[in-house]
Amino acid sequence: MRYLFTFMLRNLRAHPLRAILTVLGITVAMLSFVMIQTMVDSWYAGVRASAKNRLITRNSVSLVFSLPYAYVSKVPQIPGITKVGYANWFGGIYKEEKNRFAQFAIDSNYLDLYPEFLLSNEARKSFDDDKRGVIVGKDLAEKFNFQIGQPIQISGTIYPGTWDFIVRGIFNGREEGTNTKLLFFHWSYLNDQVKATKLSAGDSIGIMVVGLTPDASPAAVSKAIDDRFANSYAETLTESETAFQQSFVSMSSTIIIALNLVSSVVVVIILLVLANTLLMASRERYKDFAILRTLGFRWTHLSAVVLGESFVLVTTAMILLSLILAVIFSLPPQKLLGELATFFPVFRLDYSVLFISIALAFFLSLLAGIPPLISISRMKITQAIRTLG
To answer: Are residues 209 and 259 in the same domain?
Structure first.
């Protein structure tokens, strides 16, 4: 077997440029596959991060329509509920049109219902005591260089005008996948300004966040909430936080399908590139294989040579891929994705995607070796020597 291994390496060195281009082709294709799957995986980050003990209540017609603030006091009366918070989507712009990020006007219970946002007691008190105070996530603070005590202005879109805030705290995520590209401010400040400027009647909320007791049935509590407001002028739709997040993802289902289709095409490209290289190499060495057969080498030995070359090429490509990914994901998402970072609050490499891609690459190397193996198995020694000799 040592001689076969030497023979295999000699064959690879015989055409170094072809081997290098094949390795680069596999690496680029697999890099595309990993990046596409990482984007798809990141798209579902909000769904995976959603808690099982939280419900979201919104207007049954659409999320665009609000709910009366009076509903907040009626929901806690339903059994199985620990606490109720509420929030409004703000949708403002910071300095430039491109600087859009998630901004929510919230009540004090909202943060209690989201323990994955880690905020120091000092920062929480500073935020609670300042009506114009805001807290921002760590990633958002790093992107715009927000500092505690810094005054910031946000131009409203849904709520027109210039809104003045002061950064009172920076929160981190309990887990690596927690979205920290968020800004929170007081709902009371929003409501007072809306009433003062007569933008609307005020006293309306976008959603209610409902915390459940450990023994509560989410389906039963959801039904109880919706039944409570049935036949009112603002009926509700209550669903699990997972389902709520999933509804946003489903709006982009066409994009997800397209990305998965592209990744499938990438897989086919890898197979074709590798199979073409192995076929070319086997044709060039047809006479060598025929001589080896006359010396007593079995078809299984020749198969080991072909598959060994395939595995060496793929292994080299995977090592190169790992190095490239290490460099890429050491960069901040803002530098890596640019403006696209807005659409991917959490963008990180899931190692399961990397392991799947490596396993897929080696599986493809096995498939790519089938055509030359079939050709070698059908080889007639005398004809091969006579034809190419």
So the answer is: no
Q: Are residues 123 and 181 in the same domain?
A: yes
What residues make up the domain containing 167? 61-234
Residues whose CB is less than 8 angstroms from the CB of residue 188 and which lie 6 or more positions away in sequence, other chains included = 107, 131
Model confidence over 134-151: pLDDT tens digits? Answer: 999 998 898 899 999 999
pTM: 0.68
Helix (H) or strand (E) holding 292: helix 286-294
Nearest one of 106, 105, 99 to 145, comparing CA atoms: 99
Instruction: Please write the tens of the pLDDT for every residue from 247-295.
Output: 666 656 667 777 778 777 877 777 777 777 766 666 656 566 666 666 5
Q: Are strands 133-137 and 161-173 parallel, antiparallel or unpaired?
A: parallel
> For the chain, how big is the Rg over CA atoms in Å?
30
Under DSSP, the state recorded for 93 is B
For every residue of 29-73, DSSP letters joined together read HHHHHHHHHHHHHHHTHHHHH--TTEEEEEESS-TTS-EEGGGGG
Cβ-Cβ contacts under 8 Å for 231 (sequence gap 6 or more): none
Residue pair 326/354 in contact (Cβ under 8 Å)? The answer is: no
How far is residue 231's CA from residue 131's CA, in Å, rounded to a whole number? Answer: 36
Beta bridge mates, 371: none
Region of 20 on the Ramachandran plot (φ > 0 left; ψ -120 to 50 alpha; else beta) = alpha
Between CA 306 and CA 311 the distance in angstroms is: 9
Asked if 266 and 333 sit in the same domain, the reply is: yes
My answer on whether 258 and 215 are in the same domain is no
Decide if 211 is inside a domain. yes
Domain count within the chain: 2
- The token pair at 75 is 């929901």
Q: Is the dihedral of CA 90, 91, 96, 101 positive or negative?
A: positive
Question: What is the C-alpha to C-alpha distance for residues 123 and 240, in angstroms, rounded to an integer?
Answer: 30
Q: Give the whole-angstrom CA distance, residue 183 versus residue 144.
A: 12
Query: What's the rounded Cα separation, in Å, for the pair 134 and 113?
Result: 18
What is the Cα–Cα distance from 261 to 259, expressed in whole angstroms?
5
